Amino acid sequence: MADLHAFFHPRTVAIVGASNKKGKIGNVLVRNMIDCGYPGRIYPINPKAEEVEGLRCYPSLSAVGGKVDLVVIAVPAARVINVARECGQAGVKNLVVISAGFKEVGREGLLLERELTGICRKYGMGLLGPNCVGMIDTHVPINASFSAVFPQRGNIAFISQSGAMLVAILDWSQTIGLGFSRIVSLGNKADLNEADFIADAADDPHTRVILCYIEDVARGQQFLQAARAAVRKKPVIILKSGASQAGARAASSHTGALAGSDLAYETAFRQCGIIRARSMAELFDLAVAFAHQPAPGGNRIAVITNAGGPGIVTTDNIEMSDLAIARLTKETARELRSNLPPEAAIYNPVDVLGDAGADRYRFALEKVLGDQNVDGAVVLVCPTAVTEPEQTARAIIETHRSHPEKPVLAAYMGGKILAEGARLLAEAGIPCFTFPEPAVKALSGMVRYARARELPAKVEEPAPEGIQREPVRELFQKVRQEGRLTLLGSEASQVAAYYGIKTAPIILATSPDEAAARAQEIGFPVVMKVASPQILHKSDIGGVKVGIKTPREAQRAFIDITENVQRFLPRAVIHGIEVQKMMPQGTELIIGMTRDVQFGPLIAFGLGGIYVNLLKDVSFRLAYSLTREEIQKMLTETRAYTLLRGYRGEKPRDLEAIIEMIARTARLVLDFPEIAEMDINPVFAYTDGAWALDIKITIS
Amino acid sequence: MADLHAFFHPRTVAIVGASNKKGKIGNVLVRNMIDCGYPGRIYPINPKAEEVEGLRCYPSLSAVGGKVDLVVIAVPAARVINVARECGQAGVKNLVVISAGFKEVGREGLLLERELTGICRKYGMGLLGPNCVGMIDTHVPINASFSAVFPQRGNIAFISQSGAMLVAILDWSQTIGLGFSRIVSLGNKADLNEADFIADAADDPHTRVILCYIEDVARGQQFLQAARAAVRKKPVIILKSGASQAGARAASSHTGALAGSDLAYETAFRQCGIIRARSMAELFDLAVAFAHQPAPGGNRIAVITNAGGPGIVTTDNIEMSDLAIARLTKETARELRSNLPPEAAIYNPVDVLGDAGADRYRFALEKVLGDQNVDGAVVLVCPTAVTEPEQTARAIIETHRSHPEKPVLAAYMGGKILAEGARLLAEAGIPCFTFPEPAVKALSGMVRYARARELPAKVEEPAPEGIQREPVRELFQKVRQEGRLTLLGSEASQVAAYYGIKTAPIILATSPDEAAARAQEIGFPVVMKVASPQILHKSDIGGVKVGIKTPREAQRAFIDITENVQRFLPRAVIHGIEVQKMMPQGTELIIGMTRDVQFGPLIAFGLGGIYVNLLKDVSFRLAYSLTREEIQKMLTETRAYTLLRGYRGEKPRDLEAIIEMIARTARLVLDFPEIAEMDINPVFAYTDGAWALDIKITIS
Questions:
Q1: Which residues cross the membrane (chains A, B) (predicted)?
Q2: Whole domain around residue A485: which residue ranges?
Q3: Which of A394, A426, A453 is at the close of a domain?
Q4: Which pLDDT does position B532 carry in this prediction?
Q5: Cα separations (Å) of A610 from A614, A682, B641, B648?
């Protein structure tokens, strides 16, 4: 991971393309750097100017004479290469390339971008961009961007792959008084990417919450590592677009980025403990909540309201999320009963009634926050004739101060009457919304984060025992030498067996007599199926015979199958007939793997058999760092789990054996990146053990 | 349905409990009525005052002398009864009872409320409330409420079961300039309810969109009828709370309402074409969209943006909703290509680039709205150095005027820089949001409405032929006389047969010889099962024998089953052994019915067999007005449908036969409200026909 301390804290900054012409980016860059109060030295570079915005202007970087830590480049794309080279030779540490005209404009731009990256790599320079708005740190302070707005100082780091969105958000943030620690416009991510900035923000003392808008990740593994480590320190909230097919198309035409599938992102985010925002509003609602409120210790929420309807709406939203309505202790109920009017609802939601002033809110909030069964609170205020919005705000703020470990969020449902109260709350760090739903959503995100933070730090599991890597490698080589990419069932079974996956014995026979002999070896009854990767639905053409009980039947089956196949598919290449032990019926499961370009192997688990695609009862995990604990969770996410635990009086299946098989499958596909796809369908799970029956492996 | 013309257009209004004391409800009511510009006569009633707010005050209603159309009552609950009686005697047409202290405070209040309703019924008076904020019509104008805010005139009717929420919304509406035609606070709904006001608003020329917040409906059938009729005239958007269990609890403690299950509401809303809002924000976002924009003719949406990122976010949201990204015609693409800069993206989303001024937006919007492949548009504006927010707003407004049949929504992503442009748009009726997601959500709601509006008007289907009602009635009577509530399998089968549902023949036998004889009648092979409503899992105790092929085996099975049951459940009452035709294996389905307190029978359809509860592949419809077309839709919503159409090369099942069975089941449960629950599981569907195998019927 890049060390970005020097990037955000340069002692000297040069701006190449500095200009005196108002409105030009080269002018805005210089002005922004001056106006933000940057404490270091600023060197405008432009051979045609003596002075820019009152600063001495240099004809070139070398003319500066002294060391320059950071160079911001805003010259036409074609000239960027030369400037970068000059920077490299002068020992510059980092570049921010504002200029557009690179990867995003097509092949020529891509080549230019590669050249630029090559230069940066050669000289060990970090590079933000190209084609970006720049970066800001409000605490340094530094403004190496052409943003028209310098944000209010705060504790939110915002990293955005879209420059326009970043500028829009900065403009909008002023209307709600949102403060930022850092702003990073990623641009084309030719070098520094979201993972670098997430990792650095995780260690930045001024950042409390990390916000990202991304359309893809640059490097899957780097991202996973950075995100996982960051989440243990502070919340990482990401809005990821490009999820829909058309969205992905737009993404690729926009930044030329290679988008991973949304499933892989969804899985990766969950496995890292990233909170995924579903909309821009949610992204910032979560940011506001995390910026000043603690993550709750649990999910039990108290609601205080002065009106029934909004209380019910809030309760609904709590119950439909992963939050729960807290059950107040008897002590709390008693206290509320004796101090609130008799008509007040003293069970959660606590209805302090329409005539409640600030004191009643203060009392109720004090009691519920002091309740050991409450992990956080939502306070609702509706305007009535006697509502005291500002005093109530102060009561909330003060009461929260004595319970700083529990989050408090508010909804002030109204307009002008409540505006000042809402402002007071926001200013004091109590997130205040117009409607209750976003408050509940934000709290729900906080609870999810609190759980994710507890994910175990060390995620590497010891490799399963008894693995034979070399024979698998040799087998793949043999298959490739034969010009095939799909393994025969017996080969796939062999591969699985080398990795300690229990498979129903299966052997290839090439004559009726061999079939009989193999069947005898394996033990009757057996199943026999044609071995031909070209034939997908073997049963449909008479390519499978089940329940073979004698050597004679085996011979007969060999002949029958061969004849059937020759009749229906005379051109199919037949490698022989596979003889497989016929296993007693077990619970049918599927364990599979598909490979994502960004995040590598995705392991699937679910109900197996012929209805896999119909029922779609499948859960996914990334194979990387897949712990047994995660596999266990993966199981519980499926309906198959209900069957496995013993459905309608049946005995439970051997969960350990299933977990073991998943772990070994994950190891196999990690060890062999050439495995493009793999399906074990069905796996038969029994009360004792689990066996792989049919295995398909495709290599690349 | 109540005729509410007189309610909203009274020529004279009396306010009982009128007061001169500022801040008192009795004073606010009089002031509100005067201030709104009510054109009729206002009579304050209070024996202790000569004059209220400059109007002559009368000691009693009878003292007024003339006819009073509407009386607003704001005296303590105990005195309301007498006032109401006096109103009745004086020929008053409608009452608005503001006073609280009725059903919501417990049993005593409930009795008081019943008395009040009785008086209103006796004199034929309409009653709004009690325990409500009142009502407003901005076009009459009339303000029979104690709301502190008189809303801006507009075309949104808002009907709310929560008074506090209504007041909060009115306060908030001023900050965004939202206009209303009507405001109704339902209160306890002792008489007039949401259905009455929905029906009336549907015919109100000043109302374009009907908005409701409800916690329950008063009368299911009335509601369905009103909503269905209203939806054909204008959109009905409902936020229904009390969905979660705890939510339902809170609802019942709040209004004492008997809440139906959320599933029934969900189904009812969908069947009526009601748009269900999922949050308060969504309720009003939809309202704003419907208030001024036309419902689109289809779901193909064009996006115009000046920045890539927001375009991708919008595309994602469109693709993930029931909207589609429009494919522009070649002609449009050609026009855009020749008139926009070369870097512009001319396929949808159309990216007019960051340096776009108003003219470029105008050109692009004109072209996409003129495209026959486009049903509506979302315009995104991000602030850049050259953005022209106000001129762009005007361009959008003017362009939309030449394509008034297609909805246009906007997202102005930013703060102060864009505020005036956003205001211009909102004022001109172009909904303008801060972020793109709500625009897409609103458009999606509009598309759903456009589809719902097309639902056939006449929903009564002819009753299925060959139905014998009388014998079913007699059979239920017989079962009840025997002191049972659960029918035997053979009885349930008989009931189904009377309604033309094909059932696998099943006959009760009470001796081994009879069993043999019955089996011969039916034809071998047969299944035999113990007939005892007390035994739930018959197989588990040896109460079922399958594949019986001879009379001898039938005799043997009778003895075996009897012995097994006597051994395991010696106390079970055995009515005999049922002999049923063994049907060949078909696709296993379930058709079931559960009865909702509000909406009556809910019909379920899905995958059957023992995994029903595991797979939960079930769709629901209300039995009332269930058309064949709806049944067809119901089928397609399940995964079972994929099986039925012919999965993996199998022949399709007889869909007509399944539809027929559902229609007949619906008829049966509508004809016999005493059927509390019914399950046909499994139904075996074949390529030709569908047969009911196991039927359970419980009566009440």
A1: none
A2: 469-581
A3: A453
A4: 87
A5: 8, 9, 16, 9
